[in-house]
Amino acid sequence: MKRLLNSLCNLNLLLNKKFDVPIFRVHSSNISVIKTPVDFYETLKNLSDQSTKRICISSLYIGTDHLEKDLVESFYQAKSKSPDLNLTILLDYNRATRETPKSDQSNGPTSSKSILLPLINQGANVNFYLTHLTSRHYGLWRRPKWNELISLHHMKLYIFDNNIIISGANLSDTYFTNRQDRYILIRDSPTLCDYFDQLIQTIGQFSLKLNTTGDFQLHDNWHYDPRKFFHRYLFKINAHKAIKNLNKDFSAKTTFNHHNINDDVVDTIVFPLLQMKSLKIRDEEKFTSCLFENQWPKSTRLNIATGYFNLIQKYQKKLTENSCLSPPTTILMASEEANGFYEGNGLLRYVPYVYTYYVRKFLQRINKLSNPKQISIRYYDRPKWSFHGKGIWLQTPEYYLTMVGSTNFGYRSVYRDNEAQLVIITKNERLKETFQSEFVDLVHHSRTIRNWQTDLPRIPFLIPFISNIFRSLF
After folding, report:
1. pLDDT tens track for 97-118
2. Which residues are the active-site residues?
3. Would 335 be classed as within a structural domain?
4. For the chain, how many structural domains are there in total?
5. Signal peptide position in this chain (predicted)?
6. In this structure, are residues 371 and 322 in contact, taking their beta carbons and an 8 Å threshold?
């Protein structure tokens, strides 16, 4: 473990205080990979049924079909069985209040808000994050779906007592059936769960609170309304301070002397990375940039997954200029058919072509390298499945590093949305093999894209124009 932490020192990332994040020690035996959407759903249900102290959820939204309703019902039952259980849910305001028409008109349209309303009477704390950036465009962006372009709360964190699932998956039926994502379960880790619990509570404090009448209100100790134009500056300053104070507090609690660690006791460490550009929090961007540009040993293997390919130019540049990686870097992404917007309604059906355009431009960039085989592009292409997985797998001679969470490493993730990642670094052989097997399983359902002219579909003529002008929205 000393070598592991010294390697972090060599990266000049954490222990030189480039940015302040807490570092947690976790037993490798408590970390496992959930492989399928069905297993993800069953694990959520089982953990919910077993919870007696807390259920703390952060997601983009909760769907409104029967699987989601059964999950919400399990939250309700857990609270009924254990009245002292702390039930907290944090969603994105714009996405979670968007109504979904139902075929049964007697019930009318539903939304995350409507199916969560019964929990309020049970004493649940349900909050909806709305970015202060909305106040600048409120008259222009009231329309559902369009208002989601500005910024979203995108963190996917699922806490049950002292167990947590870190994922990129939302709580919706497609994510429980045939949309592949990543899901890491960490059991019996109270301090780590406390951190993410308090992160969700902290963001909830400057979000809009749902009350028993179905209306929204500010929390009593928060005075800056994200919907008001003249509140936006104070909202940003005070929200930034609240998140930074949280990290500072936990950094102090989890500080340990890395020169006096027994290797037999600690073989795995984890630390969170937040990306909230609108609040001037950019820890994930800084870390990822350093990761891509570091001069690794020749045997190091780097793999990346991004559900929607739109790597920011800084990441692309660092990846293509880093020639020290002797095995090729594999980048796994969704094919057009595996894109969540495939065959969408209206203009949404063109979204997969936008990502195809970005892939084409990146392939053209790769082809100009002295060694084009340095980077391998693969399309997840599984019949009747979509792909939403994202993350990084880095295997060095000494340890294995993986990043798991909500970010796609694209423009939206870096510059617009609220994202949360967890970095896991281990030297445990079993866990190394588990992470490597996870990536191999994902790649099994993919094909290599070599030539943008022959391996990619034709792009409608307006797509390049739209893709370049509105790149930050994707």
Report:
1. 998 776 454 466 689 999 999 9
2. 154, 156, 161
3. no
4. 1
5. none
6. no
